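Re: the multi-chain job from yesterday

Posting the exact lines I submitted so nobody has to dig through the queue logs.
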Amino acid sequence: MQTKIKTNETPGRRARGLDRAFDILDYLRERKSPARPNQIAVALSAPRSTVYELIAALLEAGLLEQTDAEGNVFLGRKLYFLGLAYEANFDLTRECRAYLDRLAIETRETAQLCMLDGNKYTVAMMREGARPFRISSNVGEPVPVPWTASGRLLVSHMTDEEILEFIPAADFVLPTGATLNPRTFIAEVRQADKAGFFSFETLADNFTRCFAAPVRDHGGRCVATLCLIAPRNDAQQYFERYKATLLDAAADLSTKLTSRSLPSSRTISL
Amino acid sequence: MQTKIKTNETPGRRARGLDRAFDILDYLRERKSPARPNQIAVALSAPRSTVYELIAALLEAGLLEQTDAEGNVFLGRKLYFLGLAYEANFDLTRECRAYLDRLAIETRETAQLCMLDGNKYTVAMMREGARPFRISSNVGEPVPVPWTASGRLLVSHMTDEEILEFIPAADFVLPTGATLNPRTFIAEVRQADKAGFFSFETLADNFTRCFAAPVRDHGGRCVATLCLIAPRNDAQQYFERYKATLLDAAADLSTKLTSRSLPSSRTISL
DNA sequence: AACATATGCCTCTTACAACGGACATACGCA
DNA sequence: TGCGTATGTCCGTTGTAAGAGGCATATGTT
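And the result, C-alpha cells for all chains:
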C-alpha cells in the first residue's frame, strides 16, 4: 500500500527543493533498500534533473550515501547520528527502555512503545518477551492507524473531524481487505480514551492480541502508548494481570514526562 | 570548540535553502538542546527571515519539533525513524553489535565502533566493559580526528595533502592546549596503516589507553575502527592479549562487509 | 521614563534553483 | 541490425525562495 508519496497539492506549482528532498528520504525509508536517482525521480514523479541535483546535495551533506558503484543511494550515516541526538534529548525514549524491560520480564510477552509518525502508527521501541518463540514486529515501519490498538489512543486528542481528515481513507481498509467504518473507529477511540486502555485481537494476524495503554504528557494528551503483544490464549488467561501491569507502567512513565530539556550529560566517567 | 558552523565560502553568494536547513540540524545536534529560531539564526549568522521560514518547513516535515510553548525547537522524531531505517540497512551496524559484546566480555574493557562523521571522529556504537567502574564516552559526539587513536586509521586512505585539507587546523590543538605537529600526525597515520593497528595513551584524559584496529571494506579502505578503552595499568599488563583479540575481531568483521544490500527482512515471526 | 536587547512577523527585490527538454549512452529483445 | 527502455548529463527559461530591512512587542537595565 501507499506506493506513491504525496508530492504536492496544486499541480501547476513548482515544488520547493526542501520538500522534494524530504520526499526522497521518505521514499528510501519506505522502500527499505537503495535506489538509483532515476528510479527515485520516476517513483516520485519528480523532474529528473531536479532529483539528480538534490541527491548530489544530500550526498554532500551525508544524509544520503552511495551504496555501490552503480549509482545506488540510500539513507546516510548522518541521519543515524541525528537520530542519536534526538534520542539522547528525548526523555521518553530513554525512560521507557527500563519500562519495556520490566513489562517483558513480568509478562514474558513482547512489549512495545508506539507513537505516531506523521499520520501513521509506528513502533518506536520494542523488547521481545521471554518465550522460545517470540512475537516481534518491525521497529520504525509505518502502519495505518486503524489497524492497531494503540491507534485508538494515539488520535484520541483530536475531534472527530480532525481524525477523519488525519487518517487517509485508504487506511480504513484492513489487511483482511474488509473496510472498517470510520464511525466505528471513532467510537472505539472515544471509548479507549475514557477507559485509558484498549485491547483487541490483532487485525494484522490471527493469533495475537494487543494491549495498549496511553502515555500522557502534562496536558493529558496521549503522546505514545505502551503495548503488549500476546498469543491469544495467554492473553485470555492473563488478561487482567497483563492489563494491570501495563496500566501501571504507562501511568508511571507518564509521570516522568515532565522534564524535557535537561542537558543530557553523558560525559566520560571512570 | 567550533561554535560557528561553516555556511559558505564565497561571501556574496546566496546560500541554498537545503544547506541552511542542514546547518540548522547540525547546529542543534552539536548544541544538544532546544533553541529558538532567532538564537539559531544568530548562531549561524544567517538571515532571520530565512531561518524562520526554513524552520517552519522543517517542523512541517517532522525533522524538527516544537519542544515547548516558548518557541524552542529541537531535532524531531522523523530523524529518529530515518536513523532507524539507516541502521536497519547498514550491515556494519548490525554485525558489529555481536563483536562489541564479544570484545567487552573477553577483555572486560569498553569496546567501541568508531567512524568518521564529516571531518570529525565519532563513536557510532559502544559496549561498556564488565568492571565496577566503567569507562564510557558520548556516542555520536563529534571529536577532532587527531585526538583519537582511531583517527590515525580512519584517514589512512587519504594522501598527505588530502589529510591536511580534510582536518581543520584547529583540530590539531589537543585538549591539553598543546599543538600536534600535522607531520607527526601523518607519520603516525602511515605507521598505523602499515601495522593495521594503533594504540596510544588517550590524549583526552590521563588514565586510559586506546587500542584501535581497522575495519576494512572490499577495497581495503578503513571504513570504521574497533576500539578498546582500558585503564593504563591494565592496558600495559594485557597489551598483547588485547591487541590480538581486537585485531582478530576487526579482521573478522571486515570479511563480513561484502554484502551490503540484502533486503533486511525483519518480518513478523512467531 | 528612557534605553538596549531579544524576539517574532511582514514586505519587497532579485539571484538562482527547479524545471522541461534535448542529447548521449548503455542494455535487452525481437 | 534496429527498436524500446533505463539511465545520466547539460542548458536555457522563469517562478520563487533567500535575503535585507522595517515594524512591533516583550523584557530587563539604568
